[in-house]
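Example 3.
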Amino acid sequence: MTPLLSVQGVTKRYGAHIGCADVSFELYPGEVMGIVGESGSGKSTLLNCMAGHLTPDAGQVVFDTRADGPRDTVTMSEPERRMLSRTDWAFVHQHARDGLRMGVSAGGNVGERLMAVGERHYGDIRSKATDWLERVEIDAGRVDDRPTTFSGGMQQRLQIARNLVTGPRLVFMDEPTGGLDVSVQARLLDLLRGLVRDMGLSAIIVTHDLAVVRLLADRLMVMKSGRVVEAGLTDQVLDDPQHAYSQLLVSSVLQV
Amino acid sequence: MTDQDYNFAYLDEQTKRMIRRAILKGLAIPGYQVPFASREMPMPYGWGTGGVQVSAAVLTPEDTFKVIDQGADDTTNAVSIRSFFQRTAGVTTTTKTSDASVIQTRHRIPEEALTEDQILVYQVPIPEPLRFLEPRESETRKMHSLEEYGLMHVKLYEDISRHGHIATSYAYPVKVEGRYVMDPSPIPKFDNPKLGDMAAIQLFGAGREQRIYALPPYTQVVSLDFEDHPFEASKADHPCGLCGAEESYLDEVIVDDAGGRMFVCSDTDYCDARQAAGYKGKDAA
């Protein structure tokens, strides 16, 4: 089986500082990978390198494209990479405001990716947008409202709808539940889990919230100071952490 | 000689040369916004500094020059720019569309079809069609270069979702030769069909924004739309009150404070010519 995404030796430096160093892993179709670590451990840098927002200093990010099979996205041309990020990839930002157009209605936000790949039939775009709003539990009657009138949780769900409307195969998520209160988090996680299972999505989720990875991720990587210190099945890493930092991380979670 | 010792058409030769290079580049890549070193002109930004610089660069002493502002030859902007070139270039000026070889225009295309011997110069306030959708210039330039124009349709989508139809009625975005999306300057969308396949050269100058773009003769220009909401060139549904024309673009004029109004051709030269030929509208004196 060909991995959907194969990351080899990805390194990113900021001057003398290390963003992330020598990260390698493989992600198979339908698999959800969690990346955890404290602030500044390089997990967002790694995610941005994989999603093409940053250019890594070394290493390969090989994605199994629909048309040409495995291709290194670091060396492919920018139009091709941007095309991927509109079709096969999705990126869910921590702050919904970074991923949404706040001056454009919810329907327009969801429709943008469709129009970007050439959809030119208003009726079709609108019905797909409405359908997706319902799938992320937003009332279809709010299709013409701007995201500024939405609550934080709704904005985050709208961002997810906007990303998934073109049927991507790989979703990058940067702290998808950050900044939401716990009950909203729980609903969002439930929704995400359903969507990932239904659509057979692969996902890479960066978070510092261990509960999120426990629920969503099949596998887990623990990062510290730009390096992966431990990797394995989620339950295995969380229940029997081997590395001193992983043990600290797991033991730091408050038990209510 | 003109009344002051200005160089022909105000600008110095080096500046005109620089502008001509930008114009030639613009003609070579229809719809592409060419940056140029816009000069301070003796008028405020927004009054047509871009158009004036382009006109200055293309004028020759043998040219006949016409200026229209919203279709009219007799408004402040048109009168002052016309007299500016009369003084600094000593060119013949006219208000007759067919007599002019260079026409500078603000927000209209003349009703009368232009010929291969004419140049139409537009004054452009904001050359970037994506400006209000994506404020970063670095990003819009990338979108142009990579032909990522999905966002333009988001604007039209928003129009339909809010108003039930495409409510953008001026500065309606067009696609040039299947490549660049271009802002046709704030002409009414009624004029959009005239942009394409026109015999005259069309030059667009944006002074404050320092951009020049162009459409060579007989260029394909398509107004953007949706399959189920096609582009429609719209105008007020009335005949002209003075000349009775049914096909021309109309201005609505309030004539008293009791709700009285009349519709007249925005192109004054077209209207005058029709009245001289004996056509009468219902409000004609």
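The two ends of chain B are 43 Å apart (CA to CA). Chain B touches chain A through 16 residues (CB under 8 Å).
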